């Protein structure tokens, strides 16, 4: 982190040099006299701020690292404030709007000081304190920079010592401006079973708003990420692109505001909709983290930045390869017996799966969970289905060398349950309105301490007595339609959206810290709750209930823009009965699993699945789950999709090619290889008894030639696919 107090550009450079040579400061707090430039920098990118002579905080730039930022000749106008508050001259969408204790709706934020510290050799932290010029009202802007990954996390903390509560109406996490130019926005919209679909448009004057008001399972219609490409649609390998991701599992809002002079500001944070927050004196309102990455080498680099950052800093146990699962949901739904499950353990063993995951339907006594109409909330084992309980199942699985996992949905309740009969006021609903059910269920109001504790007990009481349970799938199958709490007082109903999310994180944290050895999948009927804050408590997420591999090509492509393949659970199912090799090849490009009735597969399909698991575990998994991704051909552009992963040392790579329509087979040119290394080319995952028709099969070719000339698998018909391994010579 550089902090430069400058009268001249020359001074900036010399001070920056001194800074580089000097040992990093442990903690430096300074009340610098303005004007001062503050640079929040990674290896290649930088947010440059200016403390003006009037003590307001302005933005000078966001983009390539620049040690030589010159002080502007005259103070910027108020429209350039970095975190603009409402009510005192700022004309556009504000980052902050507050009604002070005396009713004043204006805020005037002035710079007090900045602090910097180095967390380690890669991560730095900067904290800028702003204070209202009249009221004891503070905003702290926090920045964490990840040098090597070119990622900046930003969030705000708001507090005050006024005489009574201050009402916060707007509370963005970040509100940066972008340098002059035209911007193309890519969003990742969708719905259940159609997640993370790309849509790109050029921004024009006015506000474009992307938001969610669904509360729980907030991201069903839109993943909280976007790309902004400058001066043209986003390219994979060229051009200036910004990536943004909000780490928040509740209502969020992204505003892209192009002012009358063509200047773009982006506001990102919790959705202010219906969320006025009454902040008591001494309380701290902490916004979610907004995560940024910038590149002038296209959106492919943005994705690699996010992947590396998430693998190192966000996902649990990043160094551990994700287990291969056999899940019973698609195979049995609610209809299983103990004997059937034990037979599936045999299947898991034969397949080579690491974990068997028992899905929905194992609980409920008075109201057995035999369909989605009843039982949710009653988390005792169904004695008719599983007479010997869970521990018997974990032992039987272990006897076959398979670990046992279980499905939980701890935030939800069916009205047909003992829980609801006992606690009808524990749900989120509005008085005097007909109860609105989705999938026949309601949401537990986690803002009520007793309900939150109950929700935690679902996890505790399932896992504590069964220490051999090695895996949990945490599901969430509806969103909020009637945002009322029977616990919160009338004046604080608008806190529900925000307090729910904090209560949820508290329980997820308890889960992760109390059961550190349990691997966890984040699910919400698919990917309707995937964001980087929830992912801190999980290893993978269930990307979609849509497992038709043709649709998965698009869904996984969409998610790959921000989330690493190690996080994207991808299962082989028989949905739509697609060709089996195509199905395997698509699932092997993520965290592989299976959701099939093993006995119903044809013998050759079983053999292919066993071979694929062996190949994945022995060769592909480390490259796919821990390598860098290069997207080569977009499924949105035509008949095929292709991408490759490269290991960090660049000695191994895997290319995936999927034919989603018929067309001629052009060369696939991998990227990211070491130009001078020589790689042996080997098409893998071929059906038993077939030979590869790849022209260069078995040959050794240098990286430069492979990247220049490519490889031409014989893929021309819809559902043809190829997996090609490249391994550097010793
Ligand atoms: C959700 C999940 C599915 C399955 C069912 C069980 O829809 O996405 O994978 O777990 O719930 O009810």
How would you explain this protein's 3D organization?
This protein has 730 residues and is α+β, with helices and mostly antiparallel strands. 20% of the residues lie in helices and 30% in strands. The strands form six sheets. Strands 2, 7, 8, 9, 10, 13, 14, 16, 17, 21 and 22 form an eleven-stranded antiparallel sheet that branches. Strands 23-24-25-28-29-30-31-32 form an eight-stranded parallel β-barrel, surrounded by six helices. Helix 7 packs parallel to helix 8 and helix 9 runs parallel beside helix 10. The chain is globular, with a radius of gyration of 27 Å. The structure holds alpha-D-galactopyranose. Alpha-D-galactopyranose binds at residues 329, 359-360, 407, 475, 477, 523, 525-526, 542, 545. Alpha-D-galactopyranose (GLA) binds next to loops.
The averaged pLDDT comes out at 94
Shape: globular
Largest sheet: 11 strands, antiparallel
Provide the structure class.
Answer: alpha+beta
CATH homologous superfamily title of the largest domain: alpha-galactosidase from lactobacil brevis
State the distance separating the first and last CA atoms: 41 Å
The Rg value, from CA coordinates, equals 27 Å
Number of strands: 38
Ions, cofactors and other ligands present here are: alpha-D-galactopyranose
Q: Any low-confidence stretches, pLDDT <50, length ≥5?
A: 1-28
CATH architecture of the largest domain: Distorted Sandwich
Count of DSSP helices?
A: 12
User: Which CATH class of the largest domain?
Assistant: Mainly Beta
Q: Level of helix content?
A: 10-25%
Proportion of residues in extended strands: 25-35%
Count of discrete domains? 3
Can you tell me the CATH topology of the largest domain? Beta-galactosidase, Chain A, domain 5
